[in-house]
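Pair request: fold both.
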Amino acid sequence: MQLSFLVAKALLEGDFASYFASLPSAADEPEPIVLREGKFERVSCMEHEERGTMTVSVLVVREVAAQAEADATACEKWIRTYGWEPVAENGSWRIVGLDTTAPAFKETDGSGRHVWAFDVLLTVVRSL
């Protein structure tokens, strides 16, 4: 969707190169960063816009556990400190606030890769 694209764009600008909407097989991409966009939760509605929240989950997949943790921590720090104001709009959506959760171990997947994850909590405005 449109807001996970902005998070992906920010990651690319931070040299976090590979990102996907779903977890690819280890044969296709051994160490991806996967973005999963949650649904929009409306908080308020006005005549020409609505305001709400959305979560984009970021999963960092690496073959070495320590690298997964280090890269997830670096990604989260980059997103948290990224200068959003100039690039906060995409179509009818605009990011007006952002927070992140601390990266944490999520799982070891079926191919033995280690997955660390964090959430990007967006406050957004949608033009109506």
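--- second member of the pair ---
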Amino acid sequence: MTDGIFGDMFDFNGDGHLDYGEQTLEFMFLEELINEDEGGEDEEEFY
């Protein structure tokens, strides 16, 4: 089991731990999920 929020989804080298690059990608993915949930920064509003 890895130490990531999403388990081993971002453990690209398969060593069981996330290095700094893998952690960065994991947090970028999480930020994108949060932005989608809140409507996102890039999403246009239609009236």
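Observation on the second member. The mean pLDDT is 84.
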